[in-house]
């Protein structure tokens, strides 16, 4: 084969690779738009009148935009109180899960005891047990403690995450060498100093990813807050949004407006921590 033919073959391979990459980009872009379309309609419906909302075919941009749905939601329901309850609940739950997962994950990864393998197996086993299995006994425990209709009652079921312990353990194993910890111990560092000054800074990406997962787990919780919070003022946002749906009707305008307002905190958090989220999840599957 001459040099000219070899160059032509290489050019064809490059063009074929470029076309395949562009095709993949187009497919991913189309799927991304399809996934965003329900959110776009959700926000759009919040600005529509009831007549326009039921019109066919549906429109993305309202013909006569109105803020009546948002005004009615804010005036007739304690939406801001529900958002405040959800934010406090989600933040405290996230902090508790980050604390328990980082401590347990570090111990299970770097301390050599046979019993720790058994404990880690039990932690993984709890991941396959649905929350609804032990939700009722947990409710009676919250009732006996007198923490119903409070943030502490909500937190009782969201203090530990088995996946979080697994995530931190894997990151500690693959990203923190034993030699680094041994060098710190030889220099006279204590275990608490090592944990706070060496381990936690190196786990920043994993903790960011876990923080996002823990926040959204608490933010979207429905079953547990529904049975713990019986007072209207103690509702979280997910339970509050369910009030817009009755047995026979759904107030689509107010529901869309309230849901659009609720999207703001969650989207803001994900935008801020998206880099840590991707980095932490990707580093979990790294090999030594």
Entry keywords:
about 290 residues; mainly alpha; MetI-like fold; 2 domains; about 75% helix; about 0% strand; disordered C terminus
Question: What would you note in describing this structure?
Answer:
With 288 residues, the protein is mainly alpha-helical. The chain folds into 2 domains: 2-66, no CATH class; 70-284, MetI-like fold (Orthogonal Bundle). The chain has 14 helices and no strands. Helix 3 packs across helix 14. The protein is flat, with a radius of gyration of 25 Å. The relative contact order is 0.13. Residues 284-288 have low confidence and may be disordered. Its main location: membrane. InterPro entries: MetI-like, MetI-like_sf.
Percent in helix? over 70%
Largest sheet: none
* Low-pLDDT segments, ≥5 res: 284-288
Q: N-to-C SSE series? A: HHHHHHHHHHHHHH
* Rounded average pLDDT: 81
The name of the CATH topology of the largest domain is: MetI-like fold
In the CATH classification, which architecture of the largest domain applies?
Answer: Orthogonal Bundle
């Amino acid at each position: 084969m001459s040099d000219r033919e070899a160059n032509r073959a290489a050019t064809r391979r490059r063009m074929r690779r470029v076309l395949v990459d562009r095709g993949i980009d187009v497919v991913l872009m189309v799927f991304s738009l399809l996934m965003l379309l329900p959110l776009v309609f959700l926000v759009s419906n919040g600005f529509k009148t009831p007549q326009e909302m039921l019109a066919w075919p549906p429109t993305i941009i309202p013909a006569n935009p109105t803020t009546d749905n948002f005004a009615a939601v804010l005036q007739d329901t304690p939406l801001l109180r529900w958002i405040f309850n959800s934010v406090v609940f989600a933040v405290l739950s996230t902090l508790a899960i980050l604390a328990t997962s980082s401590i347990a994950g570090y111990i299970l990864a770097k301390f050599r005891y046979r019993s720790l393998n058994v404990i880690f197996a039990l932690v993984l086993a709890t991941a396959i047990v649905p929350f609804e299995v032990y939700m009722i006994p947990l409710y009676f425990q919250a009732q006996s403690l007198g923490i119903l209709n409070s943030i502490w009652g909500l937190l009782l079921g969201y203090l530990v995450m088995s996946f979080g312990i697994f995530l931190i353990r894997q990151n500690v194993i693959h990203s923190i060498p034993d030699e680094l910890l041994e060098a710190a111990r030889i220099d006279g560092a204590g275990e608490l100093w090592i944990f706070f000054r060496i381990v936690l800074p190196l786990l920043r990406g994993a903790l960011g990813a876990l923080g996002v997962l823990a926040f959204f787990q608490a933010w979207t919780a429905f079953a547990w807050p529904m049975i713990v919070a019986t007072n209207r003022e103690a509702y979280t946002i997910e339970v509050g949004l369910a009030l817009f749906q009755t047995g026979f009707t759904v107030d689509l305008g107010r529901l869309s407006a309230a849901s659009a307002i609720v999207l703001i905190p969650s989207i803001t958090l994900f935008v801020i921590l998206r880099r840590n989220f991707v980095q932490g999840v990707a580093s979990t599957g790294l090999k030594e």
